[in-house]
Design a protein that fits this description.
- It is a single chain.
- The chain is an all-alpha fold and 90 residues long.
- Helix content is 24%, strand content 0%.
- The chain starts with 34 loop residues before the first helix and ends in a 17-residue tail after the last helix.
């Protein structure tokens, strides 16, 4: 069986244009925060007490210490493993 392949057409895509760079001193400035709307906005985005319950858990960063405590208290281990810093500081 013979297979024939046709060459792909060359792409004519233009390269990305150079980004426009504006010195910070010339960039548009944000409007000042309106003091009347600051408190309601802060209340809206601030964590509620029921959203902070996870912080009351005695999290362990040492696996062997977590294993020891789990055996002592008869509780399971919840393990979260990932590559990189859990705070995103890489």
């Amino acid at each position: 069986m013979t297979m024939s392949t046709t060459p792909a057409a060359p792409t004519t895509q233009q390269p990305d244009p150079e980004p426009v760079r504006t010195p910070l001193r010339d960039a548009p400035h944000a409007a000042p925060i309106n003091p009347a709307s600051f408190r309601p906005t802060l209340d809206l985005i601030k964590a509620k007490p029921e959203e902070l319950k996870w912080a009351s858990i005695p999290w362990q960063t040492d696996l062997w210490e977590a294993k020891r405590l789990a055996q002592e208290t008869g509780k399971p281990i919840f393990m979260w493993a990932m590559n990189g810093n859990p705070l995103g500081c890489v």
